[in-house]
Specification:
It is a single chain. This protein is an alpha/beta fold. The radius of gyration is 19 Å and the shape is globular. The chain has an 8-stranded parallel beta sheet with strand order 1-2-3-4-5-6-7-8. The chain starts with 12 loop residues before the first strand and ends with a helix. Helix 4 runs parallel beside helix 6 (135-144). It has a single domain (14-291), classed as Metal-dependent hydrolases (TIM Barrel), CATH 3.20.20.140. Helix content is 44%, strand content 13%.
Length: 292
């Protein structure tokens, strides 16, 4: 790190969106130390490519043994694709898993974009988020006091769902679930699920008091002036969350986390010129207040 970059490293971070598997827990901790990340939400990494992660329960037990419950706030990520071909079995097992993992310290759940974009039932009907058979899952989350990190849709630049649903249709389905569960706190991943419009972002937060958002791809949201307005107005409901994890094109290293991830994101927020109060809320206080 050069001298010019050091000014971006002298404040603590709560990272509300990262993916670190068991196999690289030590590397993640090293990166945390160097990057000033004091705590964050670890959205359990699904093994998409036959890659690196061990049994989830083993991971939780190891984190607890090492005293990391308040360093890695664990969120469970079910195998949502199973809901299409085995809906009843999926719901029963997922609710059971949620209770078991809650006893090991898990604080929330990740709902991914495959619900709505990629999943189908056996008869070819697309799977959508407002399916009534998922109600027990939301009920269990509410009973456990869990937060749900919800990712719906992709950016418009590469939105290509196999279900052929529009982004607006998927957002409508998402909003129906949020409205039906006002007691569940939702974190909408990636700047309100890549909403790409400051006014729509604002309207969404005004409509749903139980909704917060982590932040990514800020350049798609609006100008710096628009971002400053949004961040100042909703400073209590936004989280730093650059979606960090381990690289899939080389062995994991701290350069990936620091120079290619956390440092550019720190610079973005610093360069916006936010008030000190807003800056501290987004980078640390909102996460600490909710989860620590």
């Amino acid at each position: 790190m050069n001298q010019a970059d050091k000014k971006y490293m002298d404040f603590p971070l709560f990272d509300a969106h990262m993916h670190y598997p068991h196999a690289y827990l030590d590397q993640a901790l090293e990166a945390y130390e160097e990057c000033g990340v004091k705590a964050g939400i670890n959205l359990w990494l699904i093994d998409f490519n036959g890659g690196y992660h061990s049994n989830y329960e083993e991971f939780l037990v190891d984190c607890n043994r090492r005293g990391l419950r308040k360093r890695f706030i664990q969120f469970f990520w079910p195998e949502w694709k199973e809901f299409g071909w085995n809906p009843d079995g999926f719901v029963k097992r997922t609710c059971s898993d949620m209770r078991r993992y809650a006893a090991l310290g898990v604080r929330g759940m990740k709902v991914w974009k495959d619900i709505g974009m990629f999943n189908f039932f056996a008869d070819g009907t697309p799977v959508y988020l407002d399916d009534e058979r998922l109600i027990p899952v939301w009920k269990t989350a509410r009973e456990l006091g869990w937060t749900i990190s919800l990712h719906t849709a992709d950016p418009s630049s590469h939105f290509n769902p196999r279900t052929k649903a529009s982004r607006e249709f998927l957002f409508k389905k998402r909003d129906e679930v949020i409205a039906a569960n006002p007691d569940i706190p939702f974190i909408l991943c990636h700047s309100a699920n890549y909403i790409e419009d400051v006014k729509k972002f604002s309207a969404l937060l005004d409509r749903f008091p139980n909704v917060c958002s982590d932040l990514s791809q800020l350049e798609k949201l609006g100008t710096d002036d628009e971002l400053r307005w949004l961040f100042e107005r909703y400073s209590d409901r936004l989280y730093f969350g650059p979606d960090m994890g381990m690289p899939d094109n080389r062995p994991p290293d701290r350069k990936w986390n620091l120079e290619e991830g956390y440092l550019p994101w720190r610079k973005k927020l610093v360069d916006l010129g936010l008030t000190e109060a807003t800056f501290k809320k987004i980078t640390w206080e909102n996460g600490a207040k909710r989860f620590l």
